[in-house]
Amino acid sequence: MVGRVIGIEDATPLEFWVAVDPEQTLQLDDVVALDRILPDGQLVRIFGLVTQVRARHEGARFQSDVFLISDGILPAEVSEAALVQPTRFEPEILLPPLPGAAVRRATDNERDIALSFDDVDRRLPAGLSRSDEPIFLDLDFVDGTKGAHINISGISGVATKTSYATFLLYSMFNSGVLGAEAANTKALIFNVKGEDLLFLDHHNSSMNPEQVARYRALGLEPAPFRDVGILAPPRKGDPNATPATGSRTLGVSPFFWTIAQFCQQGLLPFLFADSEDERQQYTIVVQSVTAQLTKLPEGGDGTVRFDGRTIRTFSELVDAIETKLIPDDPDDMVDQRWTGRAVGAGTINAFIRRLASSRRHLEQLIRADIGNAERYALDLDAHQVTVIDIHSLHDRAKRFVVGVVLRQAFDAKEASGVAKPYQFVVLDELNKYAPRDSSSPIKEILLDVAERGRSLGIILIGAQQTASEVERRIVSNCAIRVVGRLDAAEAKRDEYGFLPTVQRQRATILKPGSMYLSQPRLPVPLLVEFPFPAWATRSAEAGLSPGGASQSGDPDDPFAGLV
């Protein structure tokens, strides 16, 4: 016994206070249990989570009495009490505990019952409690069986959002929870900051025995991801399309789209996916030009024929479109098939200005000036985990890549007609791509993923610093909510209403590696700590890859060649 239910505070089915035995302690996040016997003799077991703890002097009247009590002049007793929020009633008879009822710490099977782990058939290891006990997610609320999608919020660099997202992926691939589907399940990760995610396939040389033990407590063996493909944009002005990476040089492939792919797949609108209001007049021109580009004939090796010219570069394509919309001879009429209808010169010029401004940011990504350019087409099924590095790109180019790749992944799943194998998508800075107060082609795709992805088997693991700035429909469609360290002002927003008051306060001081995890099975979010990544998160940590190769290719020197 660790205490008894207090009789001078109201006890309800939603919360009650426990007086802590002087010989015992209760801390935040402890799991407790107690019994109540009904008049008919039926036993009801009540389980709960400690969400607040307090200590006070009983017998004191004034704040200054503490000095007299400490000096032994005034009699008083120190009492500790813990606020408990019930998590489960077994059977489900929602009655308050009775004052004086003995409260015990829930361990082993009782802890599993308290946290509803006993009812979960597919338990996804999600981290450890503060007492190093495993905490699980119900995979049914991740893969679309009963719910889908995960949303992670927290301050950049402190909340370790991406680290937790990759840990969940590693857990899914290596815990056995996916069964035979693990071999075919794919993950697509956008690397939006630094080069932290370019070494997922290398051992982390900073691992220590304590961290290894934490993985094994979750039933996992620490190791890097086994099958990883790294894609990066070509360097600007490089005729050989050398990947634009700094710290990693081996095992990186370039990606870009040919001129023919850009035109035939109707990718032009993604050049304007910078949160512009779709009510702007020039968007009419965008749609009309897109439709006309899809009709251009191929010229071979990724090129197109445009008014008798072979277009090989993005700059040439921009010039050709500009000539079409603004004829050299002012007396010539503009072809309204390219403008949609009679629009003013100002509208056409607005379109041209925005198209021209994208030239320097996108020219290395849209090209057909390399032989056999089609071999660089994105293949999202080539590896179990595909990392697309966009951190070095301008924001406008980032939006283009994210939008086009997401549409490719979504269209592929939609065309397959079946949910399995699953396709997980990890995207940080979600507020940039699906802002609350504006619209864009990327936002529409993300809404499709959030609202229809569950049935198609495409699962979004989205992250952002501020959930209050992300489209509500996307966040509300996420069955699993995760919160790391929050800014104090952000923590007060309605988007975090699922966190009790004390947990909102604690979220402002959470240390890296700690997250609050909310899932439909539990009425109270759980604090989880996840192990240090077993895969390298930067070049300085990169040991051997699973194939035994370092960055230099020398198995005897795992750090040689690292910058």
How would you summarize this macromolecular structure in one to three sentences?
By secondary structure, this protein is an alpha/beta fold. The chain is built from 16 helices and 21 strands.
Q: What count of helical segments does DSSP give? A: 16
The helicity comes to: 25-40%
Q: Please tell me how large the radius of gyration is.
A: 29 Å
Mean pLDDT: 89
Overall description:
This protein is of the alpha/beta class and 563 residues long. The protein has 3 domains: 3-115, no CATH class; 123-237 and 387-541, P-loop containing nucleotide triphosphate hydrolases (Rossmann fold, 3-Layer(aba) Sandwich), CATH 3.40.50; 259-362, no CATH class. It is built from 16 helices and 21 strands. The protein has helices spanning 65-70, 108-114, 161-174, 209-217, 259-264, 282-293, 314-325, 336-339, 345-357, 359-362, 395-416, 430-433, 441-456, 472-476, 488-491, 501-507; strands spanning 3-5, 16-20, 31-37, 43-58, 77-90, 102-105, 123-128, 134-138, 150-153, 186-191, 228-232, 252-254, 298-300, 303-306, 309-311, 385-389, 423-427, 458-464, 480-483, 514-518, 526-529. A 10-stranded mixed β-sheet has the order 12-11-16-10-17-18-9-19-20-21. Strands 1-2-5-4-3-6 form a 6-stranded antiparallel β-barrel. A 3-stranded antiparallel β-sheet has the order 13-14-15. A hairpin with a 2-residue loop joins β14 (303-306) and β15. α7 packs antiparallel against α9 (345-357). The chain is elongated, with a radius of gyration of 29 Å.
